């Protein structure tokens, strides 16, 4: 083989770096395509809650994880309340926020990491709703943040702020119970809480607060969460009374201490 042929062969050989780049490009394209497919198919959209297969799956999950306290007939027991009439929304709220299954006895079920997947949660919700219908899980159109934030903020102040704080930061109640912080709560769980009234919360059915007004409240909360504070330290958004007390104790206290220091220095 002459020198010209050897040079031509060397020119046609692919560099090792080109192979690496080709593999990385393939991985990026595959990963991007997978992300788009999964984003277009959320768990709730992929579960047909009316199908017998979904209900049967939910019945098996319920029997092995929930029936000990709530009973297979949903009538409850000394260790768990009845689920008759709670509907799919209550199951999705309690299980979807990790409150259930209850880890230990306490005045209130706390939010914790979820035990079940979204699909399993919806299957159990479908089973409970099949035994005893109740409030349904809200539709995606009811959760869009397109409501009237101004009206929603007014409704929240009238109906919710006395427990959850005007900023939705939560607050203490009696007997070791509390109104949870709503800042990081998903819109679907805020809506379901209004529908079902978990813990000490009253039920706000569609006759008390209409679906549009619920959407307004959620829009107001999420709009408020997205806005940055413009008044300095937010102090955890604990409200004007607590913030005023903080200013009185530390602000006025600092002025008094400075005055005493000046007087002592003058003498």
TrEMBL record:
Topology in the lipid bilayer: Multi-pass membrane protein
Organism superkingdom: Bacteria
Transmembrane segment boundaries: 245-264
UniProt xrefs under InterPro entries: bc1_cytC-su (IPR009152), Cyt_c-like_dom (IPR009056), Cyt_c-like_dom_sf (IPR036909), Cytochrome_c_Oxidase_Subunit (IPR050597)
EC class of the enzyme, as a word: translocase
Keyword line: Cell membrane, Electron transport, Heme, Iron, Membrane, Metal-binding, Repeat, Respiratory chain, Translocase, Transmembrane, Transmembrane helix, Transport
Enzyme nomenclature, EC number: 7.1.1.8
Catalytic activity: a quinol + 2 Fe(III)-[cytochrome c](out) = a quinone + 2 Fe(II)-[cytochrome c](out) + 2 H(+)(out)
Classification via PROSITE patterns: CYTC (PS51007)
Main localization of the protein described in the UniProt heading: membrane
Domain Cytochrome c residues, every copy: 53-132, 147-225
UniProt-annotated location(s): Cell membrane
Subunit structure, as described in the record: The cytochrome bc1 complex is composed of a cytochrome b (QcrB), the Rieske iron-sulfur protein (QcrA) and a diheme cytochrome c (QcrC) subunit.
Name of the molecule in the record: Cytochrome bc1 complex cytochrome c subunit
Originating organism: Amnibacterium endophyticum
């Amino acid at each position: 083989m002459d020198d010209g042929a050897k040079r031509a062969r060397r020119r046609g050989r692919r560099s090792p770096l080109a192979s690496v780049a080709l593999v990385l490009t393939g991985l990026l394209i595959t990963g991007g395509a997978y992300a788009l497919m999964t984003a277009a198919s959320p768990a709730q959209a992929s579960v047909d809650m009316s199908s017998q297969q979904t209900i049967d799956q939910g019945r098996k999950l319920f029997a092995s994880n929930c029936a000990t306290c709530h009973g297979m007939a949903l009538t409850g027991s000394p260790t768990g309340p009845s689920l008759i009439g709670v509907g799919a929304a209550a199951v999705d709220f309690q299980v979807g926020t990790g409150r259930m299954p209850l880890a230990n006895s306490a005045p209130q079920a706390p939010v914790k990491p979820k035990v079940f997947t979204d699909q399993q949660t919806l299957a159990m919700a479908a089973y409970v709703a099949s035994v005893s219908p109740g409030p349904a899980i809200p539709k995606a159109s009811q959760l869009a943040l397109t409501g009237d934030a101004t009206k929603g903020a007014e409704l929240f102040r009238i109906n919710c702020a006395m427990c959850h704080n005007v900023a939705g930061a939560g607050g203490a109640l009696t007997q070791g119970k509390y109104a949870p912080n709503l800042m990081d709560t998903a819109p679907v769980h805020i809506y379901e809480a209004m529908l079902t009234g978990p813990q000490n919360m009253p039920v706000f059915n569609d006759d008390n607060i209409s679906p549009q007004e619920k959407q307004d409240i959620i829009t107001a909360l999420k709009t408020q969460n997205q806005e940055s504070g413009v008044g300095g330290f937010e102090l955890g958004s604990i409200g004007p009374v607590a913030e005023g007390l903080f200013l009185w104790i530390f602000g006025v206290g600092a002025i008094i201490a400075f005055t005493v220091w000046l007087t002592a220095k003058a003498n």
